[in-house]
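Lecture notes, unit on protein representations.

Consider one protein chain, 493 amino acids long.
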Amino acid sequence: MAVKHFNLPDPGEGLVEAEIVTWKVKVGDVVKVNDIFVEIETAKSLVELPVPYAGTVSALLVSEGDMVQVGAPIISIDDGLGSDVAPVAAPPTTTVAGTANAVTSKATTLDDEVEAGKTGDADTGERVANLVGYGPRVTSGKRRLRKSESAAATTTAQVNQAFSPVPAQPESLTAQPVSVPVLVPAVGGKALAKPPVRKLAKDLGIDISQVTGSGEGGIVTRADVEEYEAGGIAAASVNGAGSAAAGSSTYLAPVFAATGERETRIPIKGVRKITAQAMVASAFTAPHVTEFITVDVTHTMSLVDRLRTDREFRDVKVSPLLIVAKALIIASRRNPGINATWDEAAQEIAVKHYVNLGIAAATPRGLMVPNIKDADQMSLRQLADAMANLVSTAREGKTQPAAMSGGSITITNVGVLGIDTGTPILNPGEAAILAFGVVRQMPWVVNGEIKPRWVTQLSLSFDHRMVDGDLGSRFLADVAAILHDPSQALVWG
């Protein structure tokens, strides 16, 4: 029997761990190459992983809800070939054009020659963060070979693929044949329980390690979890921040009902954690300046109504945000200094000749800012399609790391929540962010007469190291001019 261990791949972006969200397979299942077998959550997105080889699942080495370090084994598969080591084919990877770095999506890179997921200096074995999308470096790390593998060491060292040949792991990690149903092996001293029982405990906000198992060998059963919850024993922690219903009152209701506690503590992880770190870094690194303007957008609203009935746009949602996005792109072309980034190491300002347009999206996992690559090269219809796809993907929690990197300027649509305006914090690495407020009818003076008009407020926050008041004001005025009279886009576009 040849048992292969699939190690958690490096998702790029400098991320070093991920949470096991949902197993798509169970012990005994037969899998084919590229079958999706697990869904993981990194600090930036949910990612479905494909298996790089075929065989029968012999063990799930970690449980749903566990945080796993990059390079740690998560599943064992018997390929039935009867050898200890067999080559593993690299699955296809995809890259996103227009980004500064190639970013691996879905089928991420992995090099199992690196010991326990460590990369960096070969002498110290210290793990270091990787460049975006590049994965562990084969030449800078090494692992200790088993005696049975020494003969194959030369061949193994020559393999330089996203998924290298995977040797059998040490005895402590070697999967043993088990019958179905099977328990997920205990990791880090956790209680023994089947995946469905662990999920039930997680959904109820119960730390399963606090539950006493009544099953054979101390196994925690569903009845044990339900009895624990009914007894009102306080749960030690609440898992699920970053899940589909994280932070909602509906999701946390069982905890309130069971414990009677006056507060609920939610672990800071996933999107919430990375957003907090990014916003603190941005707020205390870039000197923010915010300017405001109130605009009569009656003509823009008329254009939106016409586009909604135009057969060219009949299959896509058209909203005022689409016109704002197009106006921002045109204004960026007229004021290129607004579309830049500060390179502290090189002591340079990098002005970008492309627009990777970020759209801030509120999702069940927290605020995310995926971006549309090369938005400046798109027609209005193409931009509408890209925006619709970006928002729907983000709300489903399926945004990939590639879509979160390489942004150049951002729009945050606070108006969708009925907010007039705000002072948004810059997305790290960008020079400006535009807030689009609610569009409402107001009395407005037109040719000396007061008339009802559609009015909105725009605010622009910018990094005063790169953008002075003159540039920021001209850019904001250009955006406002196009929204006031969309025909101006024909002149400037």
